[in-house]
Amino acid sequence: MSFITPSAQLTTDITIHDKSFTNEHNVPKEFAIMAAHWSMQYSGNPPRIGKLSTTTLIGPLRKAIYAVQNLVVEPSDVANLLASAKGTIMHEGMTQALRAHNSGYICEQRLEREFVGWKVSGEFDILTPDKQIKDLKFVSNYNLKKLAEDREKLQAEWDMHEMYENVPTYFKYVAQLSIYRTLLNDPEVKPYGSILFSLNNGSDMGKYTIDSEVTFPLFLNEEVESFITERINIIQAHLDAGTMPLCSDSERGYNAPEYKLERYYPNSSSTRTVPGSKFSNEADFRAFIMAKGKLGDSEVIKEAKYNLCNYCNFSSICDQM
Ligand code: SF4
After folding, report:
1. Which atom of ligand 1 is nearest to the CA of 63?
2. In sequence order, what DSSP letters do the residues of 183-205 get, joined into one string?
3. Ligand 1 center–CA 60 separation, angstroms
4. pTM for the whole structure
5. How far away, in angstroms, is 58 Cα from ligand 1 center?
6. pLDDT cut 90: percent of the chain above it
7. CB of 64 sitting under 6 A from ligand 1
8. CA atoms of 39 and 47, how far apart (whole Å)
9. Do 273 and 194 have their domain in common?
10. Is residue 158 domain-resident?
11. Residue 97: CB atoms within 10 Å
12. What range does the domain containing 292 cover?
């Protein structure tokens, strides 16, 4: 039985089981309830000192330290929870279907192993009858675009740390599957795993397949074990010293600023970007204007952005923002 009451401050805010959620974007009430409800259905315990989840471990260390310190963050807004709520519902549906129609599958099994005194937990979505790990992701087509870009850049000789920094989208999928395999610790589990992608925002005019499977070679267990140990040691050292690591540009989803000049071309009666005028730094842009700008040109400037900070649960308390 659930207890849903309107909040005192904003009629659109909701409280479920004493936890408050804001609804600043006026998500329809039923979707808002759905988002709040499913956001509370996490089967594991939240991170704390001595315990980390796989997803926390493969993200920025600064976020991991905020998470284990259990700092109070502002109430979540239902608009930010809706996509993951839909993903959770899809996971539930997949698990029910596989369990009902193919008993050889193992679904949503929670795993835990200890590394240097810390418990690391994870829950894979699917282990197929022939022991391949598969994880279901309900994502935007932007993720598939970033994954394709990363696969272009990928160098065979890179280790986990180099992949983390240089190809973060590719890394997060391979690392998650690899950690599950290491936690399972079963030599019969395949050395490759898959992500089953389902797009939540369409195919972008047929550019992407709505439901697809991408298979990745997994990291060796020894490499995963040393990656986990190193990250825990860094987290512990920061906790002992009372310090915080900084998130890198890649962890913050840095998008460089863009400067360009636009000009009206009377022959074609159109306004277009002046050829060669696009720059990612202001000094070069100003030099271009001095050399080739004309009266009447207009400057179009897009500020630098840290896209992932906008989606970070700790943005309201993070002093690196
Ligand atoms: S808000 Fe940005 S800088 Fe701060 S922890 Fe989150 S991702 Fe890192």
Report:
1. 5
2. HHT-TTS-SEEEEEEEESS--TT
3. 8
4. 0.85
5. 14
6. 73
7. no
8. 15
9. no
10. yes
11. 12
12. 257-303
